Amino acid sequence: MTLDQLRIFLAVAERGHMTRAAEALHMSQSAVSAAIAALEGQSRVALFNRVGRGIELSAAGEAFVSTARAVIAQAGLARTVLDDLANEPRGRLRLYASQTVASYWLPARLIRLHERFPHIEVSLTIGNTAQVASAVAAGSADLGFVEGDVSEENLKRRVVARDELVLVMSETHALAGATTLEAADYRGQAWILREKGSGTRSEFEAHLAQMGLAVADLDVALEIPSNEAVLSAVAAGSCVSMVSSRVAGSVRGICQRPVVWRDPPVRDFAVLTHPERHRTRAIEAMLGILDLNGRQAG
Q: In sequence order, what are the beta bridge partners of 86?
């Protein structure tokens, strides 16, 4: 029994199809079939039932899935440990970042990481702040980057940069030239907001509280889970929104107004780590890049 045979077995088990498993593994169907046949022959156990031209897990195959996954996971951990023992940081670094951080702040740091440690393989997933925190807590991400506070109490949060939200609207909007704004001005607009769980949304709600308002007091036309989509919608119509100043200049036709009528809505960019999980040399390398560069606003 080999690790490759186990990986092939799991690919077929998860897809219930030889051809789709072969495509996912970038192998020929005959090679996949041969690996399954060899595994079954060595163990003298039928792991799959052949039904016509289809295939499905047998009772024995279903019982074997969890064990096979555990072996593959342990093999991955062994590879991580060996990579970590190398003189130069290497191995895989799994990052999860909220949209503004991932699109406008993190890329420059990843380039610096690659220039200094080219053997570190980085994978980046983008979501909102709540999703990032959940991934780090669950161990499916090594480091998380968020735009505000998180509810996961078992995570360590360290500020690495600062960000300010600005009011945005089309260049022809009536508020573009207003000298000051009050709660009544907010109530009189149609708003486009980021989704619940995003750092932008939570910071905007804190700003509304300063104005004596809540989201329920506003005319919310749309909630959109994308900074760029929010700006495109604002530029195309009469709605207003509040987004990061780093984002606001990315779409033409947008007027951005810093908040001067209340305390500016300033938030932190922070890195999340799990204090009970092992820090590989790749993780330490990324944290070192943040120590050198991350506290700069740019």
A: none
CA-to-CA separations, 279 to 73, 141, 190, 261, in angstroms, rounded: 17, 12, 46, 44
Contact 137, 131 (CB under 8 A): no
> pTM, whole model, 2 decimals?
0.64
Q: What is the pLDDT of residues 49-81, one digit of tens each?
A: 887 777 888 898 888 888 988 888 888 877 777
Backbone dihedral region of 198: left (phi > 0), alpha (psi from -120 to 50 degrees) or beta?
A: beta
Structure tokens at 26: 């970038």
What is the assigned CATH class of domain 93-161+268-294? alpha beta
Please provide the CATH number assigned to the domain covering 3-85: 1.10.10.10
Query: Count of CB atoms within 10 A of residue 43's CB?
Result: 12
Portions of the chain given CATH number 3.40.190.10: 93-161+268-294
**Both tokens assigned to 266:** 């300033």
